Amino acid sequence: MQTNRLIKDEWIEEALNYLATSSEISAAARAEKVRAEFNRKQIKAKLVLRSPESSVAMRDAWAEAHQDYAIACEEEVKAIENDEFHRCQRNKSDAIIEAYRTEQASLRAGASFK
User: Fold this and answer.
1) Does a structural domain hold residue 33?
2) What is the extent of the structural domain holding 97?
3) Residue 7 maps to a domain
4) Number of Cβ within a 10 Å radius of residue 34
5) What digits encode the pLDDT tens for the residues 39-49?
6) pLDDT one-digit tens code per residue, 29-72
7) Which pTM value belongs to this model?
8) Which burial class, exposed, middle or buried, applies to 33 when counting CB atoms under 10 A from its CB (0-12, 13-18, 19+)?
9) Number of domains observed in the structure of the chain
């Protein structure tokens, strides 16, 4: 009798489907995160070079306070969020499948004692 199962068949199907179809999307999200980080660093470097300030600390502060740098930071945050979403989805799918395997093994072990 399968009524006491913790892991639903729909969850397994969704998890397997996600893992089977998300590799390219996940890779693209990771690449976008890296590109956004490079872009933010490049923008900051250009701003530091353009800064009218004389000291290194002030040039850095001027660059970090600039609107272009804020936009680059926000783009990086969005890229990180998207990458983390896909990473978490893959981890969740792996956990569901592992829980299903454990549950099935326990059911088989329990059936052998009957």
Assistant:
1) yes
2) 29-102
3) no
4) 12
5) 999 999 999 99
6) 999 999 999 999 999 999 999 999 999 999 999 999 999 999 99
7) 0.81
8) buried
9) 1
